[in-house]
Amino acid sequence: MAEPTDWKAKHLSSLREMELEERRWRALEQVLRRLVNRLCASAMGVDPRLDTQLAKLADANRRNADVTELGARHDSLSDALKALDSGIGTATMTDLAATIPATRPAPAAAGSRPAPNLAHVRAAAMKVLERLASIDPADSRVRELTKQLAAVPSEAALAEVLMRSADLVAELGEDAARERAAAAAVLAQVTERLEEMAVYLGGLNDERRTRLDDAESLNTTVLTQVTTLSTEVRGATDLPSLRALVASRLESVAGQVRDFRAREGQRFVEHSARSEAMRDRIVELERESRELNRKLEHERKRSRVDPLTKIANRPAFDERLAEELPRLKRLHTPVTLLLWDIDRFKGINDSYGHRVGDAVLREVATCLAARARTTDLVARYGGEEFGMLLVGTAAGDALALAEELRESIAGLGFHFKGTPVVVTASCGVTELKESDTPASAFDRADGALYAAKDAGRNRCVTA
Asked: Which of 255, 293, 308, 342 sits 20 to 30 Å CA-CA off 240?
């Protein structure tokens, strides 16, 4: 039982770690909510068209509203910002801020807190995002929010970034809570199974002790009867008396033996019934174990799939890249890495909305996956970035395929309300080397991708 007990202890330790992780997420969420409240207060009065949305956002935030309501407030604030931008012509929020007189703020009333400075709030928010990045470096959403935070032009825009950060923290906290609940359920199931086994083994021990006690009792009884018979035989004076003594003692011994055999028979029946029940339970446990393993394998595969595009995600890509390098050293079969980036994707999101941006990501992913073989891998690496691993393909052939894919992406023909949406992609190509590490191979392909961007986009460059 030592090994299951050790396993159970490890599971308990994992459960405690999940609880600590959940508390950390909740603490981060509260920090972000406080930042949003302060920022809403400081942004009041910049423009009347924003004040209503900022007030609603602050109220929802103070009530600890759920993700759905906060998401609606975020969308309303975004619409107000877009309306404000369109209402002032070509001027940006930065230009609007520049028109506000740079006067010294009025002194704060006694006992009140001064409104936070934009730079101070942005610095605090950046620390929160840095903490998020340290927890999960692979999360592309944190990188995207960090980029947006670095370029926010106003308090209202900063409030939008903070709301998205709060939504992300809440989502990650909910994920941690779900994982903890699932782990607790598995632990309870395992504990129940161990208790069943302990009861069964305890029953076997009790049965062995009872059987041993009965055998010792029978042995003592038979020896007593034989000793008594021996004494009585020596004192017998005639044959009839001797026969009667022997018959009486033998009948007593036979009765003890019959009782013993009856108890043994009953124990055998009970033992057979328990053994049969345990065999049935073991069969059921094996079935449950197979089902659990199937679910775990399904969850493992699902954790390696990007939910938006339905292709592999960054962890799956990193894992496969790490596997291909040792295989390259053994088999010397060429493997080429392609890194793709959709050109001016932020402009698509800003001009047509995130729904159109998501549709673009899905179509580009489908286009790339359609040309991949079963031995290849296509993954969404993060944001608008995609990675491909072409096994058995040298750099020259990979570049030719990349050019075909680039043309296919440019010819997808997106439209939004009858207006054509231009979608192109750039690609960096590099063939893996036996001396490569995953980082060196990726950096080389990334450098080629940036060269393609610098050369005008919508092109493929080989490192």
From this structure: 255
Whether the CB-CB separation of 368 and 378 falls below 8 Å is answered with yes
Give CATH 3.30.70.270 domain extents, the chain. Answer: 314-462
Neighbours of 457 (CB within 10 A): 14
The single-letter DSSP state of residue 100 is S
> Would you identify the CATH topology of the domain 314-462?
Alpha-Beta Plaits (3.30.70)
Band (pLDDT 50/70/90 cuts) for residue 341 is very high
Could you give the CA distance from residue 380 to residue 339 in angstroms, rounded to a whole number? Answer: 10
What is the tens place of the pLDDT at every residue in 231-267? 776 666 677 776 777 777 777 777 777 887 788 788 7
Confidence (pTM): 0.47
- Type and span of the H or E element at 47: none
Phi then psi for residue 61, to 5 deg, are -70, -40
Determine the Cα angle at 308 with ends 303 and 310, to 5°: 60
212-216, 363-367, 430-434: the lowest-pLDDT one:
212-216
